[in-house]
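Render this sequence as a predicted structure.
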Amino acid sequence: MHSPERRGAHSGAHTPGRIANWDLVRIFLEVARIGSFRAAAAQLNMSANFLSKRLSLLESAYKTTLITRHVDGIRLTPEGTQVLEAAKRMEEASFGLDRALSRSTPELSGEVRFAITEGLGTFWVAPRLIEFQRAYPGLLVDLKCEMRSADVLRLEADLAVQLEEPDKPDLKRVKIARLHSMPFVSPSYVEIYGMPKDEDDIRQNHRIVIQDADQTRTQQLYDKHAGREQLGFVAMRNNVSSAHVWAVAKGAGIGWLPTYIPAVAGPLVPLDLDIRFQFDIWLTYHPDAKRIPRVKQLIEWTIQAFDGRKFPWFRDEFVHPNDLQKSYKGEPLVNLFAGFMKEPRSKIA
């Protein structure tokens, strides 16, 4: 089997009147946007040397220098700037082609039962399922958002996403992402109680909010890290993520939330106190489920929806909330929770 570097090594040669190889243009577009071969390589999961060679192929094909290399990254030449604008138009056209091909695929119809933890279902999957529904309007997705793990073997769901590794050998199980949790606080809380300084300051002078539900390991983590009784320290216990986020957002106390929360819910402030937790995210389904086209389609969509290469908050390595925006290079995320929180971030600057 040929490696990616070998496969299609001569595909960049340009024939007059032919459109440039889109794979080469896509690499140029990514490098130009990010400004560095190394960073682009990490984003595309390829080697920097491979990207450099592919870009050289594009430049050789058109006998044009598109970028210059510098210690701190790359610079576009005037010709590179013109090509970048054309490449963006090519990308838009490719999106249009994808949509057209999707519309031409055979119609899928029927019901698919999708079980998922309440937080991931409410804040991440439900808003994004709109895209899936528009692509397959004949499908009905029965979305069950709850912390109890669904019994897929007993057909409570066709597929399930959970924070505990499935232990039944007859099920197909795939680790699709990792959820990182860290402490957040609202600006309104800081105005009253001040900014927490460290773990001891939190224990002595602050209030916290906890989510106590299946799959959260709440009691285990509390016993290990809290160092005091809950009464007088825990301001509120919630059994669902939506209530938990609301409580933290409105200033009830410090709460541990997924690192992606500021991207979808507003100006919560992450606390760099080195009290972070992580949970692997598992997809589970019956091995025969992929034989059903409508279930197979939702399984594939779910894996893409949690792809850490595109969505940095689901990577195995921790990415700080303040760095998510520059780490995320996809299409703009629509803030489906605009207006959810009112406090301006400038209050705690």
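Summary. Residues 22-104 form a domain with the Arc Repressor Mutant, subunit A fold (CATH 1.10.10.10). Residues 151 and 157 are 7 Å apart (CA to CA).
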